[in-house]
């Protein structure tokens, strides 16, 4: 789980990139609260071969990345 | 990642068109928009500095922030947040402003100057890119100003409210403010046109996430060129507008509100690029984020206004090239104070970058 709440871009996508490049996980959950981060992480995930499911968690947004 | 995001292109094109229009309506040449210059003018109008040629309550700044506020509320993206190293952000805002005023423009005006044929902006673009590259090295090493937290709505609306109040005061009692009688501050489009155009641009910039530093930064970090397309669209539309209006003039010399002291143009924009990466966005983006509820960005904008006051009160800002009474071309630029300030600002950026890296585990 990557908790990137309260962080502005590019920090959330950098945290996701670090996880993806280090461990290439089959699945990764990311929690953010910045709409810009949702868009940037989704683009980055797609470029790395992940599908992204986005759901609201109260005031935050959860992204579930799954390796395709 | 390589797919073009057409909304960003549309937003960039709208910014370019707005810039051409505002210049046509009276703003200084190649200064349809300049976040640094316009915040500096507002600081002067409020008496924070006494540089007579650069004092005016620029409605564009008010419109940009209000446009972002309205769009963020309408899109349910407004969220009051604050607490991410506000004091450091204030200082970074001031440093970015000092760097921008050495060059005589923010990154947005750099693109507008380039589209007007001002090749000094090319030197600046090189410096801006180098600054962004340095900033990304620290991001890769873990630089962070730490997270922000939810705040009360007042914290998220403080800059919007202050600027709205400023706009109302300006309309009701303009005599309260200092106004330039000559120089760039005296040149401006009609108030309502400036405000209305900026309102639209602010809304588009909020929705498209347009950021002059972000385009190059994301290209370096992730090979993600989404924001860069907006940057290119601004350039292309402004270039076309300048060619149509006959205001394109290619060269280094005799460019409007510009100097050809290349080293200082370069270093000034290294500061802006580096500082913008540490802040998470360029001066335009800070305005838009502040309008969208980010209290830390509001503090950054106040820091930029303080930086403008420091730049003019201590003689740090660049002066434009000119022709003297003997008809000789005199290269402007910055004096010793300004040169020292550039070096101090670079040192300050290095210190801020280093002290916000993760602690080594023993």
What oligomeric assembly is this protein in?
heterodimer
Secondary structure: helix percent of chain B: 55-70%
Count of β-strands of chain A: 4
CATH topology label of chain A: Translation Initiation Factor IF3
**Largest sheet of chain B, order of strands side by side?**
1-2
Q: How much strand content do the residues of chain B show?
A: under 5%
Q: H/E order of the elements of chain B?
A: HHHEHHHEHHHHHHHEEH
- Unreliable residue stretches of chain A: none
Shape of chain A: globular
Biggest pleated sheet of chain A:
4 strands, mixed
Instruction: Assign the structural class of chain A, choosing from mainly alpha, mainly beta, alpha/beta, alpha+beta, or little secondary structure.
Output: alpha+beta
Can you say what the CATH homologous superfamily of chain A is? Answer: TusA-like domain
Shape of chain B: globular
Plain-language structure description:
The complex is a heterodimer of chains A (about 70) and B (about 350). Chain A has about 70 residues and is α+β, with helices and mostly antiparallel strands. Chain A has one domain (about 1-65): Translation Initiation Factor IF3, CATH 3.30.110. Chain A has helices spanning about 10-25, 35-45; strands spanning about 1-5, 25-30, 50-55, 60-65. In chain A, helix 1 (about 10-25) links the parallel strand 1 (about 1-5) and strand 2. The mean pLDDT of chain A is about 95. Chain B has about 350 residues and is an all-alpha fold. Chain B has one domain (about 5-355). Chain B is built from 14 helices and 4 strands. In chain B, strands 1-2 form a two-stranded antiparallel ribbon. In chain B, strands 3-4 form a two-stranded antiparallel ribbon. In chain B, helix 3 (about 60-75) packs across helix 8 and helix 7 (about 155-170) packs across helix 13 (about 295-315). The radius of gyration of chain B is 19 Å and the shape is globular. The termini of chain B are far apart. Classes of the chains: A alpha+beta (about 70), B mainly alpha (about 350). The interface between A and B is medium-sized, with 20 and 27 residues.
């Amino acid at each position: 789980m990557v908790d990137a709440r309260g962080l502005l871009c590019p920090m959330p996508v950098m945290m996701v990139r670090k996880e993806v490049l280090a461990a290439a996980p089959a699945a990764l959950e990311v929690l953010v609260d910045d709409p810009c981060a949702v868009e940037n992480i989704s683009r980055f995930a797609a470029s790395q071969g992940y599908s992204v499911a986005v759901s609201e968690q109260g005031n935050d947004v959860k992204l579930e990345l799954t390796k395709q | 990642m390589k797919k073009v995001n057409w909304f960003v292109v549309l937003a960039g094109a709208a910014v370019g068109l707005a810039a051409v229009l505002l210049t046509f309506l009276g703003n200084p040449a190649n200064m349809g928009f300049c976040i640094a210059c316009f915040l500096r003018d507002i600081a002067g109008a409020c008496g924070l500095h006494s540089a007579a040629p650069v004092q005016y309550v620029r409605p564009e700044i008010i419109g940009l922030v209000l446009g972002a506020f309205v769009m963020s509320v309408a899109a349910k993206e407004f969220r009051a947040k604050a607490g991410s190293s506000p004091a450091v952000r204030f200082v970074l805002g001031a440093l970015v402003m000092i760097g921008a005023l050495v060059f005589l423009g923010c990154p947005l005006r750099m693109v507008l100057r380039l589209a007007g044929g001002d090749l000094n902006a090319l030197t600046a673009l090189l410096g801006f890119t180098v600054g962004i590259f340095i900033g990304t090295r620290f991001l890769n090493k873990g630089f962070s100003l730490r997270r922000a937290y939810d705040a009360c709505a007042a914290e998220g609306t403080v800059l919007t409210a202050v600027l709205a109040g400023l706009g109302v005061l300006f309309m009701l009692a303009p005599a309260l403010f200092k106004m330039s009688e000559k120089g760039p501050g005296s040149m401006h489009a009609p108030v309502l046109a400036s405000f209305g155009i900026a309102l639209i641009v602010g809304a588009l910039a909020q929705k498209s996430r347009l950021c002059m530093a972000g385009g190059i930064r994301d290209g370096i970090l992730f090979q993600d060129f989404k924001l860069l397309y907006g940057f290119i669209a601004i350039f292309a539309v402004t270039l076309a507008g300048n060619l149509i209006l006959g205001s394109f003039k290619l060269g280094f010399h005799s460019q409007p509100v510009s100097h050809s002291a290349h080293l200082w143009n370069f270093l000034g924009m290294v500061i802006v690029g580096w500082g913008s990466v540490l802040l998470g966005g360029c001066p335009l983006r800070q305005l838009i984020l502040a309008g969208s509820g980010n209290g830390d960005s509001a503090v950054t904008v106040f820091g930029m206004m303080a930086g403008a006051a420091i730049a003019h009160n201590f003689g740090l800002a660049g002066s434009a090239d000119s022709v003297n009474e003997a008809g000789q071309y005199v290269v402007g630029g910055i004096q010793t104070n300004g040169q020292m300030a550039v070096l101090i600002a670079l040192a300050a950026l290095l210190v801020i970058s280093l002290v916000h890296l993760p602690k080594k585990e023993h």
